[in-house]
């Protein structure tokens, strides 16, 4: 079946390409001066936003499969998480190098005394073991514990959402929408809810 | 100081444009360096001859190229395309476009309350106050800053005309409220209209101006046209835009930001590196156009001029 071949072969490749595109896009915008009057902040916001989006996409993969029966989502779940880590690292590197110019006292002051920075920092640190163990031989070596370890992403995504809420001024609603989406994707994993929805959608699909 | 231009003092347009180009390239290069760790590029060279195609309108030249501390003016392009103006958008880059058609004429400002001669000024009346060029640092509570050549006149000149009554202690400023022109004012997350306030002695200070222009031309809509407050030693949110009413009162007015978060945005809001915002540090700031951060100065560098207003006050408590 053509669609099946497309989904098996090309879907993961397309997702990988799509995940890498923001990098040339960022470089182009920095070069063209499209990152606002404060391009460093612009780059930090951009990379942070992409990291959060990819993390949420990776969270959406499991419900896409269990509820909507979209199996190819499982093939890109790990890659989405790894790319999220890539953009998180970029986000942090720009913060350290360009925003604070390696000024360690200022960075320490910000990182450990400000809840927004501390929460973001913790979320980023917690992503490290997940990124490392997403590559062979770790999935096999860790066996059952691999799944347990990677459930940390539920907490991490909530931390990332709170990190976003804490950096905006009053009246900005976008981060709240992301947190609602994250909570929604987590709720879809609760077994009775998952079963009910799954039954509902498979029945509709068949009729 | 009268607004006069000496030809030798004109800022070459290329100078500030090329600075911007340099920053853009430098950040592009550095961003690239993160990804291509092996890449070794030469630092970009500032080009002074090549005109850029990015800017929209021509700013007029101004009388100086730096503030009194020797820091260069922020480019016209940046001053007019990076605006905190929530009535239009919370996205600083989106404001200029959204504000483009905002009608600023006819416009009048009611000056009333505890005054002997209440009066309503039309925007044309304000032209009778001789505009001065004031190059001021603007420090946003979000820890970024600019140097802006405003055109304006001391607020004191208006207050002198209306004569504050003896029991007037504070000045309350109210901005335009129009849910049709400014749909975001329909949202209840902030207590619209925008209200700000100053103590009477702060309002009478020579550094407190009503601005009607910048870079030698009429105030662009996104910067608060037709008339806004500029209080350079306080965080930017005190400098209310598009003012329609100035009232002399005998109480400390509740401001929009204080009502939104009393523990985060105080009435005084004096720039102070030692009093942090509850969620972030105020000890350093990004000067727009620069990489890294510079230390924030007490009262935004106007300590000599304004510190006496707060003698004996606990600045940590009265933040």
Could you please describe the fold and organization of this structure?
The complex is a heterodimer of chains A (about 210) and B (about 325). With about 210 residues, chain A is mainly alpha-helical. The two termini of chain A are about 20 Å apart. Chain A is globular and about 55 Å long. Chain A is built from eleven helices and no strands. By secondary structure, chain B is α+β, with helices and mostly antiparallel strands. Chain B has helices spanning about 15-35, 75-80, 95-100, 125, 155-160, 200-205, 255-260, 305, and strands at about 110-115, 120, 130-140, 145-155, 170-175, 195-200, 210-215, 215-220, 230, 245-250, 285, 295. In chain B, the strands form two sheets. In chain B, strands 3, 4, 7, 8, 9, 11 and 12 form a seven-stranded mixed beta sheet that branches. Chain B has a five-stranded mixed beta sheet with strand order 2-1-10-5-6. The longest helix of chain B is centred in the N-terminal third of the chain and has 23 residues, at about 15-35. Residues about 10-20 and about 30-55 of chain B have low confidence and may be disordered. The interface of A and B includes residues 31, 100, 101, 110 and 171 of A.
String of helices and strands of chain A: HHHHHHHHHHH
Order of helices and strands of chain B: HHHEEHEEHEEHEEEEHEEH
Low-pLDDT residue intervals, each spanning 5 or more residues of chain B: 12-20, 28-56
Main beta sheet of chain B: strand number and arrangement?
7 strands, mixed
At a glance:
Chain A has 207 residues and is mainly alpha-helical. Chain A is 83% helix and 0% strand. Chain A contains eleven helices and no strands.
What is the topological layout?
The complex is a heterodimer of chains A (207) and B (319).
Chain A: H1 2-20, H2 22-32, H3 39-66, H4 72-99, H5 104-113, H6 115-132, H7 138-142, H8 144-150, H9 152-167, H10 174-187, H11 191-206
Chain B: H1 13-35, H2 76-79, H3 95-98, E1 108-113, E2 119-122, H4 123-126, E3 132-139, E4 144-154, H5 155-162, E5 170-175, E6 195-199, H6 200-204, E7 209-214, E8 217-218, E9 228-230, E10 243-249, H7 256-260, E11 284-287, E12 294-295, H8 303-306
């Amino acid at each position: 079946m053509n669609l099946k071949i497309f989904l098996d072969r090309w879907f993961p490749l397309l997702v990988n390409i799509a995940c890498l595109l923001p990098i040339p896009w960022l470089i182009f915008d920095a070069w063209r001066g499209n990152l606002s009057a404060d391009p460093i902040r612009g780059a930090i916001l951009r990379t942070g936003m992409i990291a959060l989006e990819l993390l949420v996409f990776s969270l959406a993969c499991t419900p896409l499969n269990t509820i909507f029966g979209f199996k190819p989502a499982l093939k890109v779940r790990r890659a989405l998480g790894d790319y999220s880590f890539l953009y998180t690292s970029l986000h942090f590197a720009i913060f350290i190098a360009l925003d604070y110019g390696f000024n360690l006292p200022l960075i320490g002051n910000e990182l450990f005394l400000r809840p927004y920075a501390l929460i973001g920092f913790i979320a980023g640190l917690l992503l490290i073991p997940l990124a490392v163990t997403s590559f062979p031989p770790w999935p096999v070596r860790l066996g059952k514990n691999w799944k347990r370890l990677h459930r940390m992403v539920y907490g991490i995504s909530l931390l990332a959402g709170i990190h976003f809420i804490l950096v905006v001024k009053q009246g900005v609603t976008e981060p709240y929408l992301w947190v609602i989406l994250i909570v929604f994707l987590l709720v879809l994993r609760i077994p009775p809810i998952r079963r009910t929805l799954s039954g509902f959608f498979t029945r509709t699909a068949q009729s | 100081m009268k607004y006069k231009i000496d030809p030798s003092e004109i800022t070459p347009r290329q100078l500030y444009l090329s600075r911007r180009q340099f920053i853009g390239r430098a950040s592009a290069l550095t961003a690239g360096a993160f990804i291509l760790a092996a890449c070794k590029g030469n630092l970009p060279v500032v080009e002074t001859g090549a005109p850029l195609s990015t800017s929209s309108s021509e700013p007029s030249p101004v009388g100086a190229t730096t503030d009194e501390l020797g820091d260069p003016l922020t480019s016209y392009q940046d001053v007019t395309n990076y605006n905190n103006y929530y009535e239009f958008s919370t996205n600083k880059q989106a404001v200029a476009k959204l504000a483009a058609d905002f009608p600023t004429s006819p416009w009048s400002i009611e000056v009333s309350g505890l005054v002997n001669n209440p009066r309503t000024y039309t925007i044309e009346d304000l032209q009778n106050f001789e505009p001065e060029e004031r190059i001021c640092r603007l420090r946003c509570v979000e820890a970024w800053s600019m140097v802006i050549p405003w055109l304006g006149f001391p607020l004191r000149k208006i207050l002198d005309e209306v004569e504050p009554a003896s029991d007037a202690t504070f000045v309350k400023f109210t901005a335009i409220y129009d849910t049709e022109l400014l749909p975001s004012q329909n949202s209840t997350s902030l207590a619209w209209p925008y209200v700000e306030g100053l103590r009477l002695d702060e309002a009478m200070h020579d550094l407190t101006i009503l601005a009607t222009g910048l870079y030698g031309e009429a105030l662009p809509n996104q910067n608060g046209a037709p008339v806004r407050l500029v209080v350079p030693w306080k965080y930017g949110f005190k400098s209310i835009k598009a003012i329609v009413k100035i009232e002399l009162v005998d109480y400390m007015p509740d401001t929009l930001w204080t009502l939104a978060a009393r523990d985060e945005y105080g009435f005084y809001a004096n720039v102070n590196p030692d009093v942090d915002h509850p969620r972030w540090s105020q000890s350093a700031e990004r000067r727009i156009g620069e990489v890294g951060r510079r230390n924030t100065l007490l009262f935004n560098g106007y300590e000599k001029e304004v510190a006496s207003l707060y003698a004996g006050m606990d600045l940590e408590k009265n933040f």
